[in-house]
Design goal:
Strand content: 15-25%
Number of domains: 1
Shape: globular
Structural class: alpha+beta
CATH class: Alpha Beta
Radius of gyration: 13 Å
CATH architecture: 2-Layer Sandwich
Number of strands: 4
CATH topology: Ribosomal Protein S5, domain 2
Order of helices and strands: HEEEHEHH
Length: 113
């Protein structure tokens, strides 16, 4: 994912969690918040220690990043999104993870197409 599409500062994550709209689908939770700025949408990924070891957490985050990369064009400009992985993301088939990401984004109101 391009650098301009990454949500990195912890303040930005905190703002999205505090003010964003949540949506869950299967093994993925999406939290979305319009930032009010005209710029590319930004996506952050989180996986807690509940997902497993560092290897499993990193794998879960890589899978979520790849699943959302194809849908970046559908996320409105100026939207900040945080995707939260559950333990099932690591072992689920990638097509199921991709469908869960799209469903969670739709429920959070973060997808326009």
């Amino acid at each position: 994912m391009d650098r301009r599409h990454r949500l990195t500062p912890s303040r930005a994550f905190g703002r999205v969690f505090a003010e964003g709209r949540r949506g869950q689908s299967g093994s993925v939770v999406a939290v979305a918040r319009p930032s009010g700025e005209q710029r590319a949408p930004r996506v952050g990924v989180a996986a807690s220690k509940r997902v497993g070891s560092a290897v499993r957490r990193n794998r879960a985050k890589r899978r979520l990043r790849e699943a959302v990369r194809a849908r970046l064009a559908c996320i409105p400009a100026g939207t900040d999104v945080v995707l939260i992985a559950s333990p099932a993301v690591v072992s689920a088939p990638f097509d199921a993870v991709r469908a869960d990401v799209v469903g969670a984004l739709e429920r959070a109101g973060a997808i326009a197409c």
